[in-house]
Design goal:
flat, 8 helices
């Protein structure tokens, strides 16, 4: 059945090619030309990054989901593993690994019931050799933006693939294991053995994650964990079948004995170029180009007509010949303007948000009066518990939005948070209640990150009516009295 499953699986192979195209002198050449006197086809000899590597490493191995496991009776039985692989980077985000791995797991188990007591705790060992083809997905390159200045030093990788394995398992217990007496009369246990040869019927699946760090342009270090699904019930040494002896395969209902590895490894990047495709940063193209030119100055003819603005783009292709020093440029020599606000990134203090030149490319802040009106829109309709200073939960969202707006204001400014009531009740009671409610709002806003020095709570009771004609309250409809019971925002 495993063979039929394997034959049903297909692995897509992507074939990449680049045709050479003649370039006339009155057109801009393609992005892979090395100079006006040296136009090259995009191939392994002309591109600016490496895409091969050799990886190796090792660590711990555990039989995790099986009849006999490495975790028994609160004890951990350590195993080991080691691997070496040949890595090919297909694109910026995807690669393939041809990997050889070997190791050994140590596991224990006991049959249930009387059979288990008779046999005692069984010890088993699995020595294995594996050859696998893995896909490597670089999650960091998928999520990384090219305009956020993040260094290409860390990368999270996801691995998945299939392979073939051969393994030898040994199991010793007090029942199934027989005694052997040597010529000197010494007795030893003969373990129950399973010897699975490497072949097409012994394929397995695996998947995992790795966190890589670029030590240098030649060397990476990686912490990797993999979960290996053998597809075999005999991988843990539990026996041949469920019906035969020994019957350790009856302990767990699953038919696939699975293993888990944790490794520390290294990758040595091969090739003559400065960068590797997995770490290639498009925004650092000028750096790589400069490094290549410095190391191969005698072998490469570049920019026969010069580079007047020293931006790394030859004058015969440069569409902006007076690029300011230090400005990053695109392939045509034009200074980058990420937010398209007309202010190049070199002078733009808000690179990803458009804004006018008079504000250094940053959005202009709205006028204070407009901002206060916006805050008061959020304050409008804030509800308190009856005759109390407890803010009702349905008002929290309004106050959260108000806090976000207040935090954009000048933190050296001061503002009043004013509480007011209607004319019901005594004047002294209303003054006290309005002060407590203003205090409650200020406390909430400070809790949301508003600097405490910006806000002053002030209770005005019934002396600050929005509708003065509502004195006494019986002269007005309820909606006007409700509007008089309010908290609002005002510049001091």
């Amino acid at each position: 059945m495993k063979l039929s499953l394997l034959l049903a699986c297909t692995l897509p192979i992507a074939v990449y090619s680049q045709d050479s195209v003649a370039v006339s002198t009155d057109q801009y050449p393609n992005t892979f030309t090395s100079g006006s006197a040296n136009v090259n086809v995009f191939d392994n000899s002309s591109r600016k990054f490496n895409d091969w590597a050799i990886s190796f490493g090792g660590g711990a191995a555990f039989m995790s989901n099986a009849d006999l496991t490495s975790y028994y009776n609160k004890e951990l039985n350590w195993g080991w593993n080691a691997y070496v692989s040949l890595d090919k980077q297909i694109s910026h985000t995807f690669g393939l690994l041809l990997q050889y791995q070997m190791g050994k797991t140590n596991q224990r188990g006991q049959l249930p019931g009387a059979a288990g007591q008779r046999a005692g705790v069984a010890d088993a060992w699995t020595k294995y050799n594996q050859i696998a083809l893995l896909g490597d997905l670089n999650f960091s390159n998928i999520l990384r933006r090219t305009d956020n200045h993040s260094p290409y030093r860390w990368a999270l990788h996801g691995y998945a693939g299939i392979g073939f394995q051969g393994y030898n398992t040994l199991l010793i217990d007090a029942d199934s294991s027989r005694w052997f007496t040597n010529s000197q009369g010494k007795q030893t246990r003969i373990p129950v053995e399973i010897d699975q040869k490497l072949g097409i019927a012994s394929f397995f699946y695996q998947a995992g994650l790795g966190l890589k760090y670029k030590i240098s342009r030649r060397l990476d270090i990686e912490a990797r964990t993999m979960y290996i699904m053998s597809g075999d019930e005999e991988f843990d040494g539990g026996g041949w079948t469920r019906s035969g002896a020994p019957q350790y395969n009856l302990i767990n209902d699953t038919y696939s004995d699975n293993m888990w590895t944790v490794n520390l490894g290294f990758s040595v990047k091969l090739g003559k170029h400065i960068s590797h495709l997995a770490w290639h940063d498009p925004l650092q193209e000028a750096y790589y180009r400069t490094s290549v030119l410095e190391s191969n100055a005698q072998d490469l003819v570049v920019c026969e007509k010069g580079d007047a603005d020293n931006d790394g783009v030859c004058d015969d292709w440069d569409r902006q010949l007076d690029t300011p020093a230090g400005a990053r440029v695109d392939g045509a020599g034009v200074a980058l303007d990420m937010d398209l606000d007309g202010i190049i990134d070199l002078y733009d203090k808000c690179v990803t948000v458009p804004g006018p030149a008079e504000n250094n490319g940053c959005p202009t802040a709205p006028s204070l009066s407009v901002t206060i009106d916006e805050i008061n829109k959020h304050f409008e309709g804030i509800e308190f518990a009856l005759d109390k200073d407890i803010i009702r939960p349905q008002s929290f969202d309004k106050l959260d939005h108000a806090a976000d707006v207040i935090k954009t204001l000048d933190q050296n400014s001061q503002f009043l948070v004013i509480g007011a009531t209607d004319t019901r009740g005594s004047e002294a009671y209303n003054l006290n209640l309005s002060q407590r409610r203003a205090n409650a709002v200020v406390k909430y806003l400070i809790g949301k990150g508003v600097p405490s020095g910006m806000l002053i709570a002030e209770g005005r009771g019934e002396s600050d009516l929005k509708y003065p004609e509502c004195n006494p309250a019986t002269k007005c409809p309820e909606w006007k009295n409700e509007a008089n019971r309010r908290v609002y925002f005002q510049q001091k």
